[in-house]
Write a structure and sequence with these properties.
The complex is a heterodimer of chains A (about 240) and B (about 325). Chain A is mainly alpha-helical. Chain A contains nine helices and three strands; from the N terminus they run ββααααααβααα. Chain B has nine helices and ten strands. Helices cover about 30% and strands about 15% of the residues of chain B. The chains are: A mainly alpha (about 240), B alpha+beta (about 325).
Chain lengths: ~240, ~325
């Protein structure tokens, strides 16, 4: 992790480059998957989508399927990378904690002017819950998608019950993924959350915002040596080693 | 922060390479490359005379007798489709039997071929080819259309929304739609779906009871030979060897379980048959879904790729931590 305070810039690093690559790989391929998944329904011609500039291909199910497969390669690789990499390194910041549900209700109430929001760690309790929810949806999408792809490639007469189950799990999870995506973007429109937006693009957020809203996180960063004196300490260490 | 596991870069590469190789090498052959299985039909065009003494060919009447009543009556009025408005209603034209319709799942196509100053007339029973790798079934968004072990490709009218994707994907545009019936009426009748698609199901119920499809048993001239795929394909090759002739359906769309045997080349037949909606052609057809195989296989390997990359990342993180510790 590269979390550290950049005191002179008034910023704190929230997401490493690797995390941002993971996020955008999943987000962008997920968007392509949503669109091409929709185009696997016979709607593009019916609703004149094929007549929009650059979307002539949307009415061709095989072209859509190829793009869906290509985006799935990115999406699935990124999800498995995320799971294994952060799992092995023991990163637990986004794992839901006891009391998150109750805390989330308080936070949501505070968004609407009812009560004061509690101080946060790096992530909000509802972010941790949303992450777990999204993980379940993504797992359903991936495993049902793998079954469907296997059937498409190798076994068209795979058990009809299995195929039907995989299809409806995929379709249901598709709807949930779409709703989760909309909720994710909608959460960023809420004023208190807006300072977090720059983090997923640039990697850092405003230090004053983080100190005010995420004090537990900032104290942890300082405790782990990512505080403003980090460079001084490193330089002192280098000097004592004679480097 | 927990301590990073210790994995050497070389060790990682060995594991990742081995896993990828094993996963790649472990793929079975794609659907059309598998050994044939299930049941098949040989349709010997040279034997069919179109049943000139009957109002309609006996195979067609046998099929209609069995299936005409299976299409439920559409609602009246049929909901207009948004935004295009069109519906497909065959309920007042059930009598039509010179093309495929929801009520007519088999029809006899006519072809007059001139050769050496003589014209020979052919009668060709046409219906679903029951492809080995039917994109109409595998890509049905609701799995309403399924391929079975016995070779039959069957649409379940209770699950079909009537979007007609199967007809768009079928190289012969075989499935036919009846609007105003089916599950879509209970969901968003004007916005999604448009009825139910119908086509030959190879008399699925009959063949599971070891009976012949109705059209096969009704034919007085034994135009159709039905049985195990191996035996039917062998019979087709035998007849080609004995009398000459041409086969259609063996390689079309990646292979099908319906073979047509003709004394004249199929491109000649294709030139003269009536083609259009409900009237399939005899063109050479390549499987388009086979073109998705490379990306499909990459997709199936993606979990391995993601895990391998993560392992590599963790190994890098571990070596970084080690260097840092060594330097301190």
């Amino acid at each position: 992790m590269e979390e550290r305070i950049l005191e002179n810039k008034g910023l704190v690093v929230r997401h490493s480059l690797l995390e941002r690559i993971e996020h955008w790989a999943v987000a962008l391929s997920g968007l392509v998957l949503l669109a091409t998944g929709l185009f696997e329904l016979p709607i593009a011609r019916r609703y004149f989508i094929t007549e929009l500039p650059g979307l002539g291909w949307s009415g061709d199910f095989i072209t859509s399927l190829n793009i869906h497969y290509a985006a799935s390669v990115v999406f699935i690789s990124a999800c498995f990378f995320h799971l294994v990499y952060h799992g092995l390194l023991g990163h637990e910041g986004m794992i839901p904690r006891k009391g998150d549900l109750r805390a989330s209700v308080e936070v949501i109430r505070s968004f609407f002017g009812r009560g004061k929001e509690p101080p946060f760690d790096k992530y909000l309790p509802e972010q941790r819950l949303a992450y777990a929810g999204m993980a379940v949806i993504v797992a359903l999408l991936i495993f049902s998608g793998l079954v469907k792809t296997w059937k498409n490639l190798f076994d068209p007469s795979l058990s009809p019950v299995l195929v039907l189950t995989a299809t409806w799990v995929h379709n249901g999870a598709f709807v949930l993924f779409l709703l989760a995506f909309v909720a994710h973007v909608a959460a960023l429109i809420l004023k208190p959350n807006r300072p977090m937006i720059r983090g997923i693009f640039t990697g850092s957020v405003r230090l004053d915002y983080a100190r005010e809203r995420h004090p537990f996180w900032i104290s942890r960063v300082e405790e782990e040596g990512g505080g403003p004196n980090r460079l001084k300490k490193e330089k002192a260490g280098d000097a004592s080693r004679g480097t | 922060m927990s301590e990073s596991p210790k994995i050497s870069r070389r060790g990682f590469l060995k594991i990742a390479g081995g896993a990828a190789l094993a996963a790649g090498a472990g793929f079975p052959r794609t659907a059309e490359a598998k050994e044939p299985r299930g049941l098949a039909t040989l349709i010997d065009i040279g034997r069919c005379d179109g049943c000139p003494d009957f109002e309609m060919p006996l195979c067609v009447s046998a099929c209609r007798e069995l299936y005409l009543s299976r299409v439920s009556e559409p609602v009246d009025p049929i909901p207009k489709l948004f935004p295009r408005g069109q519906v497909e209603d065959w309920s007042k034209r059930k009598h039509v039997f010179d093309r495929l319709t929801p009520y007519n799942r088999l029809y006899v196509q006519k072809a007059a071929v001139s050769e050496n100053g003589e014209t020979r007339e052919f009668f060709i029973p046409r219906r679903c080819m029951h492809c080995d790798r039917p994109a109409c079934a595998t890509l049905c968004p609701f799995s309403a259309n399924q391929k079975y072990e016995n070779g039959a490709v069957v649409i379940d009218p209770d699950l079909c929304f009537g979007g007609a994707k199967c007809r768009d994907l079928c190289p012969w545009a075989i499935p036919q739609r009846q609007s105003g019936i089916g599950i879509y009426l209970h969901i968003l009748p004007t916005l999604a779906g448009n009825g139910v698609l119908f086509k030959c199901d190879l008399c699925y119920e009959r063949i599971t009871k070891n009976e012949l499809p109705a059209c096969v048993s009704a034919c007085p001239r034994k135009v159709m030979t039905f049985g195990s795929r191996e035996a039917v394909f062998a019979e087709a090759e035998k007849r080609v060897g004995e009398t000459g002739g041409f086969l259609y359906g063996k390689n079309e769309n990646g292979g099908t379980s319906t073979l047509y045997l003709s004394p004249v080349p199929f491109d000649r037949l294709n030139e003269v048959v009536d083609k259009g909606p409900g009237k399939p052609h005899f063109e050479a057809v390549k499987s388009r879904i086979a073109g998705t195989d490379p990306l499909g296989k990459s997709l199936l390997l993606s979990p391995v790729a993601g895990i391998a990359a993560a392992w590599f990342g963790v190994a890098l993180a571990a070596s970084g931590t080690k260097k840092q510790q060594g330097g301190e």
